[in-house]
Write a structure and sequence with these properties.
The protein has eight helices and no strands. By secondary structure, the chain is mainly α. The chain has two domains: 85 residues, Rna Polymerase Sigma Factor, Chain: A, CATH 1.10.1740; 76 residues, Winged helix-like DNA-binding domain superfamily/Winged helix DNA-binding domain (Arc Repressor Mutant, subunit A). The radius of gyration is 17 Å and the shape is globular.
Length: 166
């Protein structure tokens, strides 16, 4: 990034994607907006973060994911997710999905940091091993190994079945 104008253009072109990504991971509108603001404010203060080694959207996607995962790690956020999971829902149809999302977010917050990112890409975004390897800058084999570790951790933590989605 060379100037505030470059960052403004980046915001105009890709801000909606950052917001959508943050909503997807966090499940909460206001926190998603906070992540959007935090990311672009950080670029204004430290424009050298994006060094052009990848496409801008790849950088923004990865940075957004990291900011969201950091928020999930926050104790207050975890407590809020548990409270939401326990709160009565408007419709019985929403209840199972809401419970699964709350459980998934809770499990994510308890996974080691190095496993969170690959878990979000695979289970939330339904990306392939190859797509994840491209975003993370690693091999498909490494992605597979990380996903196996995620499954082991989930089973150890007593969460969902840990089975790979079909």
């Amino acid at each position: 990034m060379r100037s505030n104008g470059d960052i403004e253009q980046l915001y105009r072109e890709h801000g909606h994607l950052v917001l959508r990504r943050a909503r997807q991971v966090l499940g909460e509108e206001q926190e998603a907006r906070d992540v959007l603001q935090e990311l672009f404010t950080s670029l204004l203060h430290r424009p050298g973060q994006f060094q052009g080694r990848s496409q801008a959207i790849t950088f923004l996607y990865s940075a957004t994911t990291h900011l969201c995962l950091n928020r999930l790690r926050n104790r207050r956020t975890r407590l809020k997710l548990v409270e939401e999971a326990m709160a009565p829902r408007q419709s019985e149809v929403e209840l199972p999905r809401a419970e699964r999302l709350a459980e998934a977010r809770s499990l994510l917050s308890r996974l080691p940091e190095e496993l969170r990112e690959v878990a979000v890409y695979y289970y939330f975004d339904e990306m392939t091993h190859e797509e994840i390897a491209g975003v993370m800058g690693c091999s498909r084999r490494h992605v597979g190994n990380q996903l196996e570790r995620v499954r082991e951790q989930v089973l150890r933590l007593g969460g969902a079945s840990g089975k790979e989605r079909s």
